[in-house]
Design goal:
There is one protein chain. It is built from eleven helices and no strands. By secondary structure, the protein is mainly alpha-helical. Helix 3 packs parallel to helix 6 and helix 4 packs across helix 6. The longest helix is centred in the last third of the chain and has 38 residues. It is globular, with a radius of gyration of 24 Å. About 0% of the residues have low confidence.
Length: about 270
């Protein structure tokens, strides 16, 4: 079997990556543009980055965004993990309908989801937008994503592992803590990261459910670009891209380090 690379396939992959990342590169470059407005390059400067920290509106929007995302991640990860684990293990009447309903928040258009949540809070609680309403709204659509990821991982888990732990004297909590949780932990972390990214950059659902004092960063950015894209918007976007890249790099290095550790253990282990 030949292992020679297909040059045309490599060229195609490079073109696809260039198409995807070219707008991000342009955004990063123009975050150092000295021009206040427009897309005409007038010189290099870094003054827009220090100005971000003196922009109280932007800082407040970022704090609200992080607060909503953290609460949504914590609650949706716990509830979604338990739901996914239950769907993978339990057999009950209506299980198929439950799994179908789990997909509804994922396939429903965001504008429908946002309007439905708005009417729900308005009719039952006469709420017109608040931080608590944002928390509940983001938790609602994040649970499904966490549950789907955890369910896929738990479905491939061998139930005999927990049974062996119970036979060796472990309690139900001990078997879950030392056997089940480590196995499904990668899926739990993946679901939490997915929930954080969805909550952090959500705009449509947040538009319907935000109120005074609960404006998030996507709402702030969209409100500003109505009057033109400024270097400050490019700068905060560049910082978000850089933070995301560093997080991905750290996760990749951590995974590589753990893989090397497992390889060393396997090599030193006595033959079976």
């Amino acid at each position: 079997m030949t292992t020679e690379r297909n040059r045309w396939l490599s060229v195609y992959a490079l073109l696809v990556y260039a198409f995807l990342f070219a707008p991000i590169v342009v955004l990063i470059i123009f975050s150092f543009n000295s021009a206040r407005r427009g897309l005409v390059w007038q010189g290099f400067t870094t003054k827009w980055y220090p100005q971000l920290f003196s922009n109280d509106e932007l800082i407040d929007a970022l704090v609200v965004t992080l607060e909503v995302a953290v609460v949504a991640v914590l609650v949706s990860t716990i509830l979604g993990s338990l739901l996914g684990l239950g769907l993978a293990r339990l057999r009950f009447r209506g299980r198929g309908a439950t799994e179908t309903l789990l997909l509804v928040p994922m396939i429903t258009p965001e504008i429908v989801m946002g309007l439905a949540l708005l009417l729900f809070f308005l009719q039952l609680f006469d709420a017109h937008g608040s931080l608590l309403q944002l928390w509940v709204a983001h938790i609602t659509f994040c649970i499904s994503y966490v549950a789907i990821v955890v369910r896929a991982r738990a479905a491939s888990m061998n139930p005999q592992l927990e049974e062996a732990a119970r036979d060796l004297g472990a309690s139900a909590w001990g078997a879950f803590r030392y056997v089940t949780l480590p196995i499904i932990l990668p899926a739990v972390i993946a679901g939490a990261l997915l929930a954080f990214s969805l909550s952090f950059d959500d705009y449509v659902v947040t538009t319907f459910n935000s109120g005074v004092g609960s404006s998030t960063l996507p709402l702030y950015i969209y409100g500003k670009i109505k009057f033109g894209v400024t270097p400050e918007i490019n700068a905060i976007s560049t910082i978000i891209v850089a933070a995301t890249a560093l997080a991905i790099l750290a996760a990749w290095r951590l995974g590589a380090f753990r893989g090397e550790g497992r390889a060393v253990v396997d090599e030193d282990a006595p033959p079976a």
